Amino acid sequence: MTLSFRSKAALMVLLTLPFPVLAEPMHAQYLPPDELSVREGEPEQQQLLQITDYSVVVGSQRQSNQQPIPVTSPLTLRLKGKPMNKGATISEVLIHFDGESKSLKKPTYDDSTRTLTLFYPATQYRVLVDLLRNEKVYCQFLSYANGHVWADLHTGTVRAR
Q: What does the pLDDT average to over 21-31?
């Protein structure tokens, strides 16, 4: 089988194109710089969800078997959406807000329930609800072989008015 001149030229152009050794996550442009080199290699897992629905849950509980009796009012955002990347199984994101701790728990993804759980300081509640009301919002979760995880909520690119 002989190739035409055009086919040979097209093949030569394709062979000279840079071939990426590592595939970047779909929304890599939203990751902060990796100044501490904690993102080693490709992510073992990426979950990318476009948020389509959300609900706010403000609870109230009182544990009567403890002294003094603590009264708590947990605040949770429940996000639902559609997976955006190949292999993504995520269907729900639970965001818990903490107004008291000095450090937050790390993000976790549960394959069995297809739920990503995030923890944010209570001061971020208003920012997140404003994003959900006014923009197209995505949630991404990346986990690496060295145990590092990254999760975020971000908008797509928005034109300034």
A: 64
Mean pLDDT of the residues in the chain: 83
Residue 48: closest CA among 6, 82, 12, 11: 82
Greater pLDDT, 92 or 38: 92
List C-alpha distances in Å: 19 to 3, 23, 46, 85: 23, 10, 21, 21
- Separation CA 141–CA 85 (nearest Å): 11
Report the alpha-carbon distance of residue 43 to residue 24 in Å, rounded: 8
Instruction: List the chain domain ranges.
Output: 42-61+69-161
Which helix (H) or strand (E) covers residue 149, if one does?
strand 149-155
- Supply the pTM of this predicted model: 0.76
- For 67-81, b/e burial (b = at least 16 CB within 10 A) is eeeeeeeebebebeb
Pairing assessment for the beta strands 108-110 and 92-98 based on DSSP bridges: unpaired
